[in-house]
């Protein structure tokens, strides 16, 4: 989800299409439980900016640990953790990335958060990168080599910290960064970063660049980003609302578009409305109809009512709608 002040996303839970022998119907089951995008521990009204779980971890460590334990008890086993950063002052959620490195305080907070996630019993995480303001390549009029190298250095630093934490992890190199028609600078950014990242680390731990609604419109550009070396798994974000169709329709349209390219990789559903029965039912039905494997699902802390811009739930503890649907 593109955010007014932040960007964030996240998701996790593998789903496959199976056969129910007695009923003769296709069903969808989760290979492993999913979870949530987790990036703020508090919302005052609609104000969340000072309460980021990464760079404000030291302001509420016990509360964050308690929230992680509550989410784990609710059946969540995966988290998507957004890394918001820009070349500018720290806001409490958005970190200063000037020079291509998080400062010692933010580095320590991230290390402590990762340790808390592991201690709470989560199986794995995804790190999503959300460069904002001048660092956001979707806003560039021309490719900026200095800001590109800054973003790339932050990815390298955070990846190293995650590896040291001994948590199985995946990386979204740019949240909702897959380019659409006419986004020439974003295409240059994603293609350059994909080539640089995979040359250094390979493809095993990354989804590449997640796809936002409307997904099917962005699929034709994927070969221009990835060439002959696409990711082993792709990430999509599903928010069913007008005029873009419901979650079922979005899923089926994106699946058909990828089929036309010969892309049969499994998906991660990195974002969907929080604890939403309609989304859960639509996605599960589409998985069976499309026969598209889905690794896992991570809900976004925003309800379908959208009571606040971008996020209206903190923490995103309730997960029963997705668990009951087989996620």
Short recap of the structure:
The protein is α/β, with parallel strands linked by helices. The protein is built from 8 helices and 11 strands.
Give the helix/strand layout.
Elements: E1 15-20, E2 25-30, E3 35-37, H1 61-73, E4 78-86, E5 95-96, H2 104-120, E6 124-131, H3 145-164, E7 169-172, H4 184-201, E8 206-208, H5 222-226, E9 234-237, H6 247-261, E10 267-271, H7 277-290, E11 294-299, H8 320-324
Parallel strand pairs: 3-4, 3-11, 4-5, 4-6, 6-7, 7-8, 9-10, 10-11
Antiparallel strand pairs: 1-2
Helix pairs in contact: 1-2, 6-7
Describe this structure in words.
Residues 1-23 form the signal peptide. Keywords: Signal. With 327 residues, this protein is α/β, with parallel strands linked by helices. It has a single domain (15-324), classed as TIM Barrel. It contains 8 helices and 11 strands. Strands 3, 4, 5, 6, 7, 8, 9, 10 and 11 form a 9-stranded parallel beta sheet that branches. It has a two-stranded antiparallel ribbon with strand order 1-2. α3 links the parallel β6 (124-131) and β7. The longest helix is centred in the middle third of the chain and has 20 residues, at 145-164. The protein is globular and about 50 Å long. 50% of the residues are buried.
């Amino acid at each position: 989800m593109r955010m007014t002040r932040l960007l964030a996303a996240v998701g996790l839970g593998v789903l496959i299409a199976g056969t129910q022998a007695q009923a003769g119907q296709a069903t969808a089951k989760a290979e492993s439980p999913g979870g949530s995008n987790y990036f703020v521990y508090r919302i005052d009204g609609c104000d969340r900016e000072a309460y980021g779980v990464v760079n404000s971890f030291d302001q509420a460590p016990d509360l964050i640990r308690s929230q992680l334990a509550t989410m784990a008890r609710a059946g969540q086993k995966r988290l998507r953790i957004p890394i918001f950063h820009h070349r500018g002052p720290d806001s409490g959620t958005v970190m200063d990335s000037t020079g291509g490195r998080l400062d010692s305080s933010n580095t320590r907070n991230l290390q402590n958060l990762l340790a808390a996630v592991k201690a709470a019993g989560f199986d794995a995480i995804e790190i999503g990168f959300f460069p904002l303001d001048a660092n956001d390549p979707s806003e560039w009029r021309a490719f900026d080599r200095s800001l590109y190298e800054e973003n790339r250095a932050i990815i390298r630093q955070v990846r190293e910290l995650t590896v040291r934490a001994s948590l199985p992890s995946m990386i979204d190199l740019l949240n909702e960064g897959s380019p659409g028609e006419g986004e020439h600078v974003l295409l240059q950014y994603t293609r350059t970063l994909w080539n640089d990242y995979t040359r250094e680390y390979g493809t095993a731990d990354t989804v590449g660049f997640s796809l936002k609604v409307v997904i099917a419109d962005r699929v034709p550009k994927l070969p221009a980003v990835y060439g002959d070396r696409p990711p082993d798994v792709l990430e999509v974000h599903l928010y069913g609302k007008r005029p873009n169709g419901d979650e079922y329709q979005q899923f089926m349209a994106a699946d058909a578009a990828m089929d036309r390219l010969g892309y049969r990789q499994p998906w991660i559903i990195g974002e969907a409305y929080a604890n939403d029965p309609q989304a859960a039912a639509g996605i599960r039905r589409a998985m069976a109809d499309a026969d598209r494997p889905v690794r896992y699902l991570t809900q976004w802390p925003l309800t379908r009512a959208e009571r606040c811009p971008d996020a209206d739930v903190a923490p995103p503890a309730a997960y029963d709608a997705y668990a009951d649907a087989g996620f």
